[in-house]
Automatic annotation (TrEMBL):
InterPro entries referenced in this protein's UniProt entry, alphabetically: ARHD_Rieske_2Fe_2S, Rieske_2Fe-2S, Rieske_2Fe-2S_sf, Ring_hydroxy_dOase_asu_C_dom, Rng_hydr_dOase-A
A GO molecular-function annotation: 2 iron, 2 sulfur cluster binding
Keyword Oxidoreductase appears in the UniProt entry: yes
Entry keyword NAD: yes
UniProt-listed CDD domains: Rieske_RO_Alpha_N
Species in which this protein is naturally found: Noviherbaspirillum saxi
Family: Belongs to the bacterial ring-hydroxylating dioxygenase alpha subunit family.
Protein name (database record): Rieske domain-containing protein
UniProt xrefs under Pfam families: Rieske, Ring_hydroxyl_A
Positions of the Rieske domain: 47-129
Keywords carried by this UniProt record: 2Fe-2S, Dioxygenase, Iron, Iron-sulfur, Metal-binding, NAD, Oxidoreductase
């Protein structure tokens, strides 16, 4: 068992001063911190499980994880959503080995115990060999105590006393609402995921998704390539090291955004199709509302869900130095083929497994983990924009595109959760 870190050790890992915001490099390395992150972050707050379109019909299921715990999400024949540990209550075998599908029952591959999609135990082979007083009532699959959804996003929590989901979402809720309006009155459907992994801490990816400071350096080669294909990506700041347009936001709940202040659509859509889509948005939300909907934003729902304009990304911690990332393209039900083809193209060519951006970031994450093995390097700084950001009465902090306001919001929440039960 890993040694447990005490309250003072954990709180001392985040050092916030008026002039500087520092995070101890120890927070990124070692199994001790990772184990407590699972216990105090991933098992205490809401974690994204799946999109409702993935379990649209009775019997539909998805296997996923909350932290390092394997979980199944399923819709029962009554139409209710259930989530439970992916572990047979007989001998603990993994009961579902498929990523997704539809079934009438889950049957354990080890000894054949079977369970409804609600988790209820319904069958034990050769049951007569058990004692007449053998209690089956506590042998249902172990449920995730809390499940809730917002905007088609299904979350679960192992904490029965966790706050209501909408309170947890806090300032991020308005961004989910705007993101939903991109469907122009329809709904999203999740496509098959792209998957990749890297040898580095999961927080590198969380911090990176709203980092507007790095693209002009890390992705310079990619931007040079894009420039050769004019029109393939619109409104990108390809010729400057640091983008000057746009915003970052950090919220007290730990969530954060990166907003480009302009649409960052991929090119290639028939102009008439694009205009029809824009006209529909304008009819629904007015000219200003349509412009707001089309303005690029990507945001992190603390600690590991990322919402992009065209896809959902889930950051899955495996170990303190190993992370998997799942990227799900989002299609719009009933949209013109050009619209959905373009959404898929963006996910594939930009932020997917073989996209022009993800490989650059992965290289940086692995390099960072390697560098942090040097324990004499004690602190990193996340101070960009500190003291220059706008602080609103509700705690929302707004910085410019390259500020580290959302990263600081992440670490404030991380520190509060890690210290709460230590």
């Amino acid at each position: 068992m890993n040694a447990r870190l005490d309250h003072s050790t954990l709180t001392s890992m985040v050092d916030e001063q008026p002039h500087e915001f520092r995070v101890a490099t120890a927070a990124y390395r070692g199994p001790e911190v990772f184990a407590q992150e699972m216990e105090q972050v991933f098992y205490k707050t809401w974690i994204y499980l799946c999109h409702e379109s993935e379990i649209a019909n009775p019997g539909d299921f998805r296997s996923t994880q909350i932290g390092t715990r394997p979980v199944i999400v399923a819709k029962s024949r009554e139409g209710n959503v259930h989530a439970f540990l992916n572990a047979c209550t007989h001998r603990g075998a993994t009961i579902c080995r498929e990523e997704k599908g539809n079934t009438r029952a889950f049957v354990c591959p080890y000894h054949g115990w079977s369970f409804r999609t609600s988790g209820e135990l319904i069958g034990i082979p050769d049951e007569a060999r058990y004692h007449e007083n053998f209690d089956k009532s506590d042998k249902n699959l172990k449920p995730v105590p809390r499940i809730a959804s917002y905007g088609g996003l299904v979350f679960g929590s192992f904490n029965p006393d966790v706050e209501d989901l909408e309170i947890f979402l806090g300032g991020a809720k308005q961004h989910i609402d705007i993101w939903l309006r991109r469907t122009a009155g329809s709904s999203y459907k999740v496509a098959t995921s792209h998957k990749y992994g890297y040898e580095g801490n999961w927080k590198f990816q969380s911090e990176n998704v709203y980092d507007g400071y790095h693209p002009g350096f890390v992705h310079r080669s990619a931007f040079n390539t894009v420039r050769k294909f004019e029109g393939s990506f619109e409104n990108r700041a390809l010729d400057v090291a640091v983008r000057q347009q746009g915003y970052t936001r950090g919220y007290p709940e730990g969530h954060g955004t990166l907003e480009a202040g302009a649409p960052l659509e991929s090119g290639g859509i028939d102009p008439a199709v694009r205009q029809a889509y824009t006209d529909k948005l304008t009819a629904l939300y007015g000219a200003d509302g349509a412009a707001e909907v089309l303005t690029n934003r990507q945001f992190l729902i603390f600690p590991n869900l990322v919402i992009f304009d065209f896809n959902i990304r889930v950051i899955q911690p495996i170990a303190h130095d190993c992370t998997e990332v799942y990227s799900y393209p989002l299609l719009i039900e009933g949209a013109h083929d050009d619209i959905n083809s373009n959404r898929m193209l963006d996910a594939q060519t930009r932020v997917g497994t073989a996209g022009i951006l993800s490989a650059d970031d992965i290289d940086v994450f692995a390099g960072g983990q390697n560098a942090l093995k040097t324990e004499v390097f004690e602190w990193i700084t996340l101070s960009r924009g500190l003291g220059k950001e706008e602080v609103k009465p509700d705690g929302e902090r707004v910085g410019v595109y390259s500020d580290e306001a959302p990263q600081r919001a992440f670490w404030r929440k991380w520190c509060a959760l890690m210290a709460a039960a230590s």
